[in-house]
Amino acid sequence: MRITGDHAELAVEGRLDVRTAADARAVLHEAVDGGRGDLVLDLGRLDSWDATGLGVIMGTHRRAGRLGRRLVLRAVPLQLQRLLVATRLHRILAIEGAVREPGGATLPGSGADAEALPAAGAALPGGGSAPWPAPARA
User: What value does the mean pLDDT take over residues 60-65?
Assistant: First the structure.
């Protein structure tokens, strides 16, 4: 894992998992503590992640909020977008680009320039269907 950038914009490269979480947390928290305004986290070169890595992102989000800053995710890989939607974390995190909820609704504040998630049950490239169930109707 490699993180480059400054107190306003960082790029994560490689893996963000249990093995790299402590180092990533230290770098991200230092960036949050040392800057002002939005902190953009570019995930375009992120190869893999696990729950611990996702926890680092959420912890950074919470820390930024306590300091009056906002963590903004940029170039979120499609698989991570799916995970954020499945866990409903897309409703909490600021994400650049279009992220769609199951059913195809675009989230408020999402741009139309990013790759959107398919609707629940929609065919995915290479076969298969979207991994989440359709939302229950009350």
Answer: 98
Q: What predicted TM-score, i.e. pTM, was given to this entire model?
A: 0.72
Mean pLDDT of 41-53: 96
Take residue 68 and report the two structure tokens written for it.
């009056």
CB–CB of 22/56 below 8 Å? no
Mean pLDDT within 96-100: 75
Q: What is the mean pLDDT of residues 24-48?
A: 96
The 3-state secondary structure of the chain, one letter per residue: CEEEECCCEEEEEEEECCCCHHHHHHHHHHHHHCCCCCEEEEEEEEEEECHHHHHHHHHHHHHHHHCCCCEEEECCCHHHHHHHHHCCHHHCCEECCCCECCCCCECCCCCCCCCCCCCCCCECCCCCECCCCCCCCC
Could you tell me the two tokens for 65?
Answer: 């909020």
Residues 6+ apart with CB under 8 A from 40: 8, 9, 10, 72, 74, 96
How many whole angstroms separate alpha carbon 74 and alpha carbon 10? 10
Token pair for residue 131? 């991994």
> pLDDT higher for 98 or 112?
98
